[in-house]
Write a structure and sequence with these properties.
alpha+beta, 11 helices, 15 strands
Length: 449
């Protein structure tokens, strides 16, 4: 793991930038298969997919990170002076610098970061009321809403993710497409606990803004305490004096958020009217100038909603879909238990492929896939005595891939990044996506070593 000591970075303002400009499936927040060993990094099993580590020359190195930051706006890029030819010190980015899970507040009256109703710099709310109402209405429940109207005012920002593209295709991001800022909102109860519901908002960053956003994240990292290692609740926001970091992070979010940048909004929620543990997945995506319902991967063209019912350690999905092949055999315990040892290993391999951003994206996966495989893999691997680290489809990285700082491997839920009441939930897919983003940032915008 690289040191977090200060390094000098130069980014040429004219360098080609990364980004992806299509969908992330139904915007399903990444989250997927964990392991008994919780995804230890390092050397992988034979056939494991890996991404190159640090290095990778980028054209035009030697410009100014500060100038790039200023190009994206002073509020987002920080205060360092420079322009082309200058340089600023920075700490190399790590897992908790590009995926930031905020601690929950002691009371919902005092948000740690922002509310869904707050306004971005474009003067619009982070979560548009009309889109919230549309998703929460819940046509699959007849006349009953999934969430009541008052839930909207209780939405608070619990997690921030930056990605160099929308990950609609497996593999490394194309250079010519837009980047994404992803925000996770959950409704909080008065005591600060999170309700079992989440809204995931995706905002576009133009290709000419990406270098400035990376520079801003590196400036943010300078305000954080040493935090190399596993993804966890933000060490910076959980520090004794977090306000300088929080203020700069809010400025970054406000700069790149708002309805004019919003390209997708998805919901995964336990309906408030049901005592039964079940969840509803829905999403809308911008097409031209309007938001359209997102069809389900693996379903019929008319399927725009997926229901997931918890049944012991199984997840029953309606409409049923085995996308990718082997998913249903893994998430339904009775099917898994009845399978041969070879078939069980194949089922777990399907889950390992689900969590690998170089193999699958949300456009090739059913909604449920990215949300339950951390728990399912851990449980099924224990029952079958199969070591997930030996599965050839698993993702590997030089970055720490542990999910031990969250409860996703032991909790029967669907939170991929956020909270189950007060339990932090961090899925393997989110961890792997984060590591992939860091590897690509290093390749595109390498530090001077």
């Amino acid at each position: 793991m690289q040191s977090r000591g200060p390094v000098l970075l130069g980014i040429a303002l004219g360098v080609a930038v990364l980004g992806c400009g299509s969908r992330d499936g139904s915007g399903r927040p990444a989250g997927a298969a964990g392991s008994v060993a919780n995804g230890a990094g390092g050397a992988g099993a034979a056939g494991a997919t890996t991404i190159g580590g640090a290095g990778g020359a980028a054209a035009g190195i030697g410009g100014s990170a500060a100038g790039a930051a200023n190009a994206a706006g002073g509020d987002a890029g920080g205060s360092a002076a420079g322009g082309t030819g200058g340089s600023i010190p920075f700490y190399p980015l790590d897992m908790n610098d590009v995926t930031i899970l905020a601690p929950l507040p002691p009371s919902s009256a005092t948000p740690v970061l922002l509310r869904g109703t707050d306004l971005a710099h474009d003067g619009t709310a982070f979560v548009p009321r009309v889109l919230f109402d549309r998703l929460a209405a819940g046509g699959e429940l007849g006349s009953s809403a999934v969430l009541n109207a008052a839930t909207y005012d209780r939405l608070q920002l619990v997690a921030v993710r930056f990605d160099l593209c929308d990950r609609h295709l497996p593999g490394v991001c194309p250079e010519t497409e837009d980047a994404r800022m992803r925000l996770v909102f959950q409704p909080l109860l008065p005591d600060g606990q999170a309700e079992d519901a989440g809204f995931h908002a995706f905002y576009a960053l133009r290709t000419d803004e990406i270098s400035g956003a990376v520079a801003a994240l590196r400036e943010l990292s300078m305000l954080a305490p040493p935090q190399t290692g596993a993804l966890r609740v933000s060490p910076a926001l959980g520090a004794d004096n977090p306000e300088a970091y929080a203020t700069k992070l809010r400025a970054f979010i406000e700069r790149y958020g708002g309805e004019t940048r919003l390209v997708r909004l998805t919901m995964n929620a336990q309906p408030q009217i049901f005592a039964q543990v079940r969840w509803v997945f829905r999403g809308v995506e911008k097409k031209a100038d309007a938001f359209s319902d997102m069809p389900l991967v693996g379903g019929n063209a008319s399927d725009i909603s997926e229901s997931v019912i918890l049944n012991g350690s199984s997840f029953d999905v309606m409409p049923s879909t085995d996308t990718p092949s082997g998913l249903l055999g893994a998430i339904q315990k009775s099917v898994f238990d009845a399978a041969s040892a070879t078939q069980q290993r194949d089922y777990l391999s399907a889950l390992a492929a689900v969590e690998n951003p170089l193999t699958h994206t949300a456009e090739t996966l059913a909604c449920v896939a990215c949300h339950v495989t951390t728990f399912v893999t851990s449980t099924r691997a224990t029952d079958s005595s199969i070591d997930p680290l030996t599965l050839p489809a698993r993702y590997t990285s030089k970055f720490e891939l542990s999910t031990n700082a969250g409860e996703a491997a032991t909790t029967r839920g669907i939170r991929a990044l956020g909270y189950n009441a007060r339990q932090p939930m961090i899925s393997q897919r989110v961890v792997n996506d984060t590591a992939q983003t860091l590897a690509e940032i290093e390749q595109r915008y390498p530090s001077l070593r």
